[in-house]
């Protein structure tokens, strides 16, 4: 095991905030294997980490999707649903792209104001990030639990901030 205990615990905590709990479609040992794999590839405590669990998926389809930012890179991993009789580690695919290679970001908003204080607005963002040959959508406009929303919003803010920083430096 090449990752540190703190990296492992940080990733496990972030996964649990995002997806609430391990799936009944995966054993605890398989879920723990995913944590170890992500801790190894991320290489420490991520600046932002967000994931979701598919409500319905067949064997071999993405059961979990996780995204993170650490040290100027954006990563995305998909954990595929193992067969019920399979006790091996769950198949996991991953790609990592430098934030500096982002070509374009499309941003949408859902702006609402409260009924009590009409001057207070809530802005939820949706960003589609494009690299050459790859894109990912980060959508905080929908409903989600109160533990995972701040992490997704942080991920969006860091992606947008990387473009702002690069534009100012250019």
Question: TL;DR?
Answer:
By secondary structure, the chain is α+β, with helices and mostly antiparallel strands. It has 3 helices and 7 strands, in the order ααβββββββα.
- Mean of residue pLDDT? 86
Strand content: 25-35%
Which oligomeric form is depicted?
single chain
Low-pLDDT segments, ≥5 res? none
In the residues, how many domains can be counted? Answer: 2
Class computed from helices, strands and strand pairing: alpha+beta
Number of strands: 7
Order of helices and strands, N to C?
Answer: HHEEEEEEEH
- Please give the share of residues in helix: 25-40%
What's the number of helices? 3
Largest sheet: 4 strands, antiparallel
The shape is globular
Strand order within the widest sheet? 1-2-3-4
| Overall radius of gyration | 17 Å
Distance between the termini: 41 Å
Features:
170 residues, alpha+beta, three-stranded antiparallel beta sheet, 30% helix
């Amino acid at each position: 095991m090449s990752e540190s205990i703190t990296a492992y615990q940080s990733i496990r905590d972030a996964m649990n905030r995002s997806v609430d709990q391990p799936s009944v479609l995966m054993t605890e040992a398989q879920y723990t294997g995913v944590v170890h794999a992500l801790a190894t590839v991320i290489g420490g405590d991520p600046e932002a980490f967000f994931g979701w669990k598919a409500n319905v998926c067949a064997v071999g389809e993405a059961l979990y999707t996780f995204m993170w930012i650490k040290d100027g890179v954006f990563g995305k991993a998909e954990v595929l649903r193992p067969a019920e009789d399979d006790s091996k580690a769950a198949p996991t695919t991953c790609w990592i792209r430098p934030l500096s290679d982002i070509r374009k970001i499309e941003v949408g908003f859902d702006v609402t104001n409260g009924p009590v204080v009409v001057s207070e607005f809530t802005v939820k963002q949706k960003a589609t990030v494009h690299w050459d040959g790859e894109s990912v959508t980060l959508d905080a406009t929908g409903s989600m639990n109160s533990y995972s929303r701040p992490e997704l919003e942080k991920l969006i803010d860091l992606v947008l901030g990387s473009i702002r920083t690069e534009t100012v430096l250019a």
